Amino acid sequence: MATTVVIGTQWGDEGKGKIVDLLTGHADVIVRFQGGNNAGHTLVVEGKKFIFHLIPSGILYGDKLCAIGNGVVLDPKVLIEEMDELAANGLSVTPEHLKISYNTHLIMPYHRAMDHAREAAKAEGKKIGTTGRGIGPCYEDKIVRNGIKIADLLDPELFRDKLEENLKYKNFLFKELFGTDTLDADGIYAEYQKYAEKLAPYAANVSVLIDDARKEGKNILFEGAQGTQLDIDHGTYPFVTSSNTIAGGACCGSGIGPSKIDTTLGICKAYTTRVGEGPFPTELFDETGDKLQKQGVEFGATTGRRRRCGWLDGVVLQDAVRLNGIDGLVVTKLDVLSGLGGLKICKAYDVEGRKFSYMPANIRQAQAARPVYRDIEGWEDDLSGARSIEDLPLKARNYLRAMEEIAGVPISIVSVGPGREQTLLLRNPFETE
Ligand code: IMP
Known about the structure:
This protein has 2 domains: about 5-95 and about 205-425, CATH 3.40.440.10; about 105-200, CATH 1.10.300.10. It has 13 helices and 20 strands. It has helices spanning about 15-25, 75-90, 110-120, 135-145, 150-155, 155-180, 185-200, 205-215, 250, 285-295, 315-325, 365-370, 395-405; strands spanning about 5-10, 30, 40-45, 50, 65-70, 75, 100, 105, 205, 220-225, 265-270, 270-275, 310, 310-315, 330, 345-350, 355, 370-375, 410-415, 425.
């Protein structure tokens, strides 16, 4: 029995989807614990393409229990569309295999509208570049205690009451502050009652379910979304998402105690990318940046936006190791670095003459951070055919060693391409002595 948390060490898009898919093969239960349909990953199975935003991809296995924890913000429309799409591909999602916490908060139409209105109203340079899915406004309602949970959705009277209370306030803002369209309670009520009917059989006490599975000796995988630098508390605030993306989020976002987590794996791309606005000290605006973007096919899975690209940031990596208590690193997309010439890894920041070994909390300092680089020899060889560490050229192995030195933790897995077979497994977190 083992419980493993998988989180992103950077700004999201580290390639968690592939690694989660791989580890799912060893897990019995897979749990989402934060974020919502701002996340997204694509899997190709037997020639069919599946895009997942909310349901853990473990659903494809057919015999796994997938759970959506209380820390997730759930857009029921998107969830049902995802279920319907899977059904259209011959995979029906049943309540036996998917559970949603009664405490999971719902994204409402006014959350999406608010996300768009707020971003549109912000001046250039102040926009966050959100995914527009209503994530922030939904978490905001949760924190001010106006949120609507699955448990509320299943109680029509309570739901109607909360909906009307919320709309009074939101419609005031839409009309008076943003000058946008107001929303109608009857329409939303009718729409959400249909969702209630569909989702009722899936609602469960996810904390109890996880605890039971643990006591039965099952392997449990907690699947993080986004990345450490997008964490609401520890990321490059305010250019962050609205949830705790770090490993601790697995506990509060699903209802498991911290002492019951065995392993935390940090997924780290061999270079760095970011979508949306905000500080990015190692960002490249030159030919190498373009090459990384092209070779790495760096487009967002949810919004299709071109990702900003840059060198590996060791400061970000060290922040991630500390904030998440990472036991093992998973290095992804190492193959993308082939043919770039000399490589660089950032080892510290220089902020107006002051040296930083962590991301400055002051956003102006974070924006002004200049990377201090360590040069590392590059390689020309194509790595995509490697099937074990020994297959990698010495220079690529040296690069990995440098990553381990900076992180201070060992590498568990290296990925050299999108295929399952392009994965070099050094340590399996679910194989405990
Ligand atoms: P929100 O989560 O839609 O509020 O967006 C806040 C910030 O997080 C924006 O910069 C987004 O681009 C970023 N973000 C949200 N989800 C993801 C993700 O899954 N991958 C990468 N960036 C993300």
